[in-house]
Design brief:
Number of helices: 5
Number of domains: 2
Structural class: alpha+beta
Strand content: 15-25%
Distance between the termini: 31 Å
């Protein structure tokens, strides 16, 4: 849902922020896109829930943030805006633990991790225990892999990875020209 709505919401926020007056076609296309995403979301699972509305609020706030970032980039330069964004968000992006084991099990990817012990992590620990948090975010680079192309669809087996935190500087090594 976020991927479907955020680009249009950002365009709307940028237009409003800049005080522009786009055509009726812009507004109709934006509303049609929102309607399409909402119809799709309502047909998946149990319909539209309070959580979906919270996601829409988060999308709106994200769109405003992107529009403001664009405005600031014109005044300060893009690199300065990015540096300030990383600096200001740093307290929110502190790793909550360290991954100690990755392996495949009967359900898929098994991740064994040691959570850090501090006051900031405790609410996260409780949310994981209650099931409110059931995912994670990390980056990796494949060190060793095997491909089996004997069937109709090639199957890739990743045997060894190097892990990076989402904002780890070592991630730059992964990029290829």
């Amino acid at each position: 849902m976020i991927v479907g709505v955020l680009p249009a919401a950002t365009a709307v926020a940028a237009v409003l922020r800049a005080g522009e007056h786009p055509s009726r076609g812009f507004w109709l296309a934006s509303l049609a896109g929102l309607a399409a995403v909402l119809v799709f979301a309502s047909t998946q699972g149990a319909g539209v829930s309070a959580g979906d509305l919270q996601i829409l609020v988060a999308v709106a706030l994200g769109a405003i943030g992107y529009a403001e970032g664009g405005t600031l980039a014109r005044e300060m330069g893009g690199w300065r805006v990015i540096c300030w964004a990383v600096l200001l968000s740093a307290p929110l992006t502190v790793p909550i633990g360290a991954i100690e084991e990755l392996r495949e099990d009967t359900k898929g990817l098994f991740v064994g991790a040691r959570m850090h012990d501090n006051a900031r992590v405790e609410p996260i620990r409780q949310a994981i225990a209650s099931g409110a948090i059931d995912g994670m975010s990390f980056r990796f680079r494949v060190i060793r892999e095997e491909w089996d192309e004997s069937g109709d669809i090639p199957v890739r087996t990743i045997n060894e990875v190097e892990l990076f935190e989402p904002l780890d500087r070592a991630d730059e090594e992964v990029r290829t020209p």
